[in-house]
Amino acid sequence: MTDSIQKVAVIGAGVMGAGIAAQITNAGVEVLLLDIVPEGAKDRNVITQGAVDKLKKSKPAAFMHPKNAKLITVGNIDDDLEKIADCDWIVEVVIERLDIKQALYKKIEKFRKKGAIVSSNTSTLPIEVLTKGMTKKFCKNFMITHFFNPPRYMRLLEIVVGDETDAKSVAAIREFVDIKLGKSVVDCKDTPGFIANRIGTYWLHAAVTKAIHQNITVEAADSVLGRPSGIPRTGIFGLLDLVGLDLMPHILSSFEEALPKSDPFIKLGKTPDILPKMVESGYTGRKGKGGFYRLNDKKQKEVVDLATLEYSIAKRPQIDATKAFKKGGLRAVLMHDSAEGRYAFDVLAHTLNYAASLVPEIADTVEQVDRAMRLGYNWKFGPFELIDQLGTEWFVEQLKAHKMKVPALLKKADGRSFYRKHAGKLQYLDIKGVYQDVERPEGVLLLQDIKRYKKPLFKNISASVWDIDDGIACLEFHSKMNALDPFSIMMISKAVKELPKRGFKGLVIHNEGTNFSVGANIGMLLVTSKLRAWPLIRMILKQGQDTLQRMKFSNFPVVGAPSGMALGGGCEVLLHCNAIEAYAETYTGLVEAGVGIVPGWGGCKEMLGRASQDPKTQKGPMPQVMKTFETIALAKVATSAHEAQDMLFFKKDDGVVMNKDRVLQSAKDRALKMAEDFQAPEPYVFTLPGESGASALQLGLRDFVNKGVATPHDATIATELALTLTGDTTDVVDECSEDTILKLERDSIVKLTKTPETRARIVHLLKKGKPLRN
């Protein structure tokens, strides 16, 4: 059904409309982008062309690949509206004024083809109001599709349908945005703000107003409500800076108009005076001079005083209530006898209580609400998952103690949790007080679900192997940040050796952590280098190389299924997989140079091999060496799976999956298909330029050092990399094996770890979390 939408029109080229257009092109779909013609404009497409130009420069990037910009055709409503006749879906993203939207709908109705779907990105106007006075034919194909900003990165899409909306149209959009755009679809009731913004705006408004009234500083508020409750690292005030302070008064006023006077949101009070004052002074958040936080001329982070609006250097506050989280969890924070503890309870208890009071008004299930808040506001836990952490019985007792009204849903729970594991299934409590299975869409396979009813085939402290049925196993990393260590390598080795004996057809390497793997555990490298245990370093490198070689040449297919960061050693694991099914938002690179070493688990060898087979670099040995040298020496990182294919981290026939929830199933299907006639790949045989090639690279390096582009130790690292990639003492007429390059990798790393500069880089990265340039 996804094929039913071949071209999309987006009308409205503001930040949101342009972002939606970019995400649609990320799916490889053409977009017609339209907006008004400004009065007196010589270029009648100045708004839409300007929007595309901004998209090309946006940070973080709106396009997953620069070439996607070519899929956008710009135009204007006055001259080009008839072109929507070629479009299967028309998305309206214009100003939140009913008269303007309805006037546009009447124009759209003149030109859209039969069956073409029309949707609005509104988050404030009900669908029954939007469609009032429109024809039945229009209403049949009309719905609300509410994206979250930025559309590329926020995975939530809320859908609201009317009484007359055609089920086939809804199914077509649901499937398209799920599979092609990578969104998790949540069905919402036709109420103000729908789900995420209704709860999220209340939460933000409560946090700001209560901080002002209770004299809590910005830093203290972000500390006590941040990590303990699992909200984004920005904190509440940092999130407001990101959203834009200028938007908040408009959002708050729209809720004040739409909600009944009895709604708890209204009882929070008016927009704090501080917001318009800051906006008037140009402090609109990150897009302006700053917001609650800003950077001064010295690039130091400053924070505003909520009482005086004066800025001072931001410092990480030492809050006793926050410290209580380590020992007693969230409940200990909320019960802490301090101003910050009381503030945290006041904000969070009212927010969770508000969420509980809104089911089933805004959604039919608590699972929909939790998913909307996780994906729309990046909460780690939804409201009902947080109530479960606190305990429903305890939470109700606290509500009563603070003279807060207990919602019917909490009464219906009667002390039971909102979620439970039953017969290997995750279940949620419905509005009738009966547990129901959490249903996954067809084609979605989650490792967390497998783990509810199975035990691992093999397990150690850093990795596990699971049977995911149909003869396919899944290897999962689960160390801190999924950093790789000898235990991770041992598990790969065991899986490759033992699984075929047990009749398994293939292996998928996948986990559901934030990142696939941030690389090898460099703390281990630091300790061994300080001890001057060079043979041990060689042994660890050899063990990793041998394991990944066995994996690459095993007698069954190994499919990598990454998401998030796959850096250093994590990238090397993927380079040795027989195929990849990657989440589109996978960020891949060999970043070892920043740590002061070269890739040592076959990364140099694999990248060199891929370059030798790439049509762009097949003309002699030097182009392939230059391509690989540049990628590794500059520690280049692909910022999407599509870019990873261009940079040779992934192959052209590797799969890119837009929806993160579908990655494991796609990888499993790929492994099953490959298993039908699998043959291990042939080893690379290199023809390398040897000493003359290394000398050429070193000559260029000296020039970079003299110009100040590279540091002296950058040059030292790059020199070792050059020797590894050129084959060192090999001659251009000699053939060079994979084993030769692997030995050169080991030699280079041992040499580099003997230098104080490399050890300084490792120490700095471990302490500061960012590379040292020395």
Q: How would you explain this protein's 3D organization?
A:
This protein is 45% helix and 14% strand. The protein is α/β, with parallel strands linked by helices. The protein has four domains: 2-187, NAD(P)-binding Rossmann-like Domain (Rossmann fold), CATH 3.40.50.720; 196-429, N-(1-d-carboxylethyl)-l-norvaline Dehydrogenase, domain 2, CATH 1.10.1040.50; 447-591 and 635-681, Alpha-Beta Complex (2-enoyl-CoA Hydratase, Chain A, domain 1); 686-768, no CATH class. The strands form six sheets. An eight-stranded mixed β-sheet has the order 3-2-1-4-5-6-7-8. Strands 15-16-17-18-19-21-24 form a seven-stranded mixed β-sheet, with helices on both faces. α22 packs antiparallel against α32 and α25 (603-613) crosses α26. The radius of gyration is 28 Å and the shape is globular. The chain starts with 6 loop residues before the first strand and ends in a 6-residue tail after the last helix. The mean pLDDT is 93.
Write a brief caption for the model.
With 774 residues, the protein is an alpha/beta fold. The protein is built from 32 helices and 26 strands.
CATH class of the largest domain: Mainly Alpha
Helix content: 40-55%
Low-confidence stretches: none
Distance between termini?
55 Å
Shape: globular
Number of helices: 32
Q: Kindly report the spatial arrangement of strands forming the biggest sheet.
A: 3-2-1-4-5-6-7-8
CATH architecture of the largest domain: Orthogonal Bundle
Number of domains: 4
Number of strands: 26
Average pLDDT, all residues: 93
Oligomeric state, counting identical vs distinct chains: single chain
Estimated structural class:
alpha/beta
CATH topology descriptor of the largest domain: N-(1-d-carboxylethyl)-l-norvaline Dehydrogenase, domain 2
Radius of gyration of CA atoms, rounded to a whole number: 28 Å
- Sheet with the most strands, sense and barrel status: 8 strands, mixed
Fraction of residues in β-strands: 5-15%
